[in-house]
Amino acid sequence: MPAKSRTYQPKKVSAALAAQNEALRGVVHRLTDSDLDRPTRLGSWRVRELLAHLSLALGRLPAAVAEDRAADGPELSLSGYAELSRTLTGSVDSAVAEHAQTAFAGRPEQVAAAFDRSLDAVRAVLDNPEAVESGRRVSLLGGRSMDLTDFLVTRLVEAVVHADDLAAALGGDAFPHDRQAVAAVTRMLADAFAEQVPGGAVELRIPPYAVVQAVEGPKHTRGTPPNVVETDPLTWIRLATGRTGWSAEVEAARVSASGERSDLARHLPILG
After folding, report:
1. Residue 5: is it exposed, middle or buried by C-beta count within 10 angstroms (0-12/13-18/19+)?
2. What pTM did the predictor assign?
3. Which domains are delineated in the chain?
4. pLDDT (tens digit per residue) in 253-270
């Protein structure tokens, strides 16, 4: 299914984001001083910087909804958001460093309180049906605009991807993701891949949430596709966002790839 043809229901996305955020809240409230200083897989960021980033990223939702001016700039699609995210690393790092040194510089209970303030502001928006009504557009940085439901999906991407980063840093059990949150993020990243690498030569299967065709070459129409890639949702999310490498996941048998065009390494990641 082409990325541009998929639509998301604002009520379902809002509910998934609320549930994912509450799962995050529960983990953050159990962190210790040593946990906050653990390294992450995101360069120089510790857990403290990771939480500061999440606070800023999720906080963009209430800020965008509260914006009074009309959202009349060029509209950004979800696939366009995925491409744009790869260019923003420098500006994101500087904002995160400043936020980590101020609101997130204290002891665990102070960090949890700062994180709560961000989540509470997001929840106030999600609990207001008029605020997340379908068809509304919001303004983004750089003069662009975005459909509000699509913007909610991007906040869901932030919440799911960075919750997985947090779980990896803490070294414990898998993060208790909301199922619908993982489903929406899996589909969004699969659609973005299909749009960025158009074609019909490879069938990418991510059961039970998504199937897309991509990669230039002979298009499959009947029977068993000659080139098939299959993986689980979290492995796909990690591949699509550069958290893991193609060869490592194939070797670990978390990715099954058959056919001469099924090596997707050069097309990944699709989101920075």
Report:
1. exposed
2. 0.92
3. 3-182 (1.20.120.450), 197-267 (3.30.1050.40)
4. 999 999 999 999 999 999
